From TrEMBL:
Source organism: Streptomyces roseus
Formamidopyrimidine-DNA glycosylase catalytic domain ranges (all copies): 2-130
Span of domain FPG-type: 227-261
The protein, known as: DNA-(apurinic or apyrimidinic site) lyase
Pfam families given in the database record: Fapy_DNA_glyco, zf-FPG_IleRS
SMART domains, per database record: Fapy_DNA_glyco, H2TH
InterPro entries: DNA_glyclase_Znf_dom_DNA_BS, FPG_cat, FPG_N, H2TH_FPG, Nei2_N, Ribosomal_uS13-like_H2TH, Znf_DNA_glyclase/AP_lyase, Znf_FPG/IleRS
GO biological process, one term: base-excision repair
Amino acid sequence: MPEGDSIWRAAARLHAALAGRELTRSDLRVPRFATADLTGRTTLDVTPRGKHLLARFEGGLTLHTHLGMDGSWRVFGPDEKWHGGPSYEIRAILGTTGQTAVGYRLPVVELLRTAEEDRAVGHLGPDLLGPDWDAHKAAANLLASPERPLGEALLDQRNLAGIGNIFKCELCFLAQATPWTPVGDLPDPETTVLRLAGAAHRLLRANTGAGETRNTTGLRRRGQELFVYGRTRRPCLRCGTPVREVWQEDRPTYWCPHCQSGPVPPTRPNPPGRPNRGTPPPG
């Protein structure tokens, strides 16, 4: 699933392609907005909000999209062949005389009044990459449910917006706690959670220009960019213990059993492609 840093980069690409330009093509391929026409309107800006994208147009309209697990926005030149999936997976097209933005596999495509954007994103906590970032507020949100597992709390966009599965695993490693450790059981919870919120902000900010290769370790050697995510059975970069993996809620969770203390799931890891089914966290 795209995380806050990749959404930030997607917004930057869309803003560069569309902002200040009049739309010459508009096609929203979802039943509710199939007849909506944005042609002739100028794009004012494209803004990320957590894992959400808000494209604002003159006349007070906003196109709200969410990439879900595998959606994407791609930008093409006038003579460039579109690529990103078959045509039936296209959910939105926004074109100008110079470039065309095409949204593939978007689970959320919603046209709303700009003044009513809070209907779509008002529930989100402080945006890790936004102007409203507030580490103390994010920490207070996380501490409000001390019995909640740390990994689950980090993924809940109502607490702080922008963390996905990769950063969840990496942040739990940095906290030296398993993702199933209740927030209230962390050592000195108030201090630890505040530091973790600050670390989340720094990591996402550092990765806004990282392209497709995220880095949380500071190491530049290939295969050592992340502490635990995707490193099943490979040695921990700190202690050498094999990293473990278990599937939960349609996504894998990784941790080092030596460097991270706390509870672990009683079940054995599921084989790839056969995750336990569950409901993804809000946001």
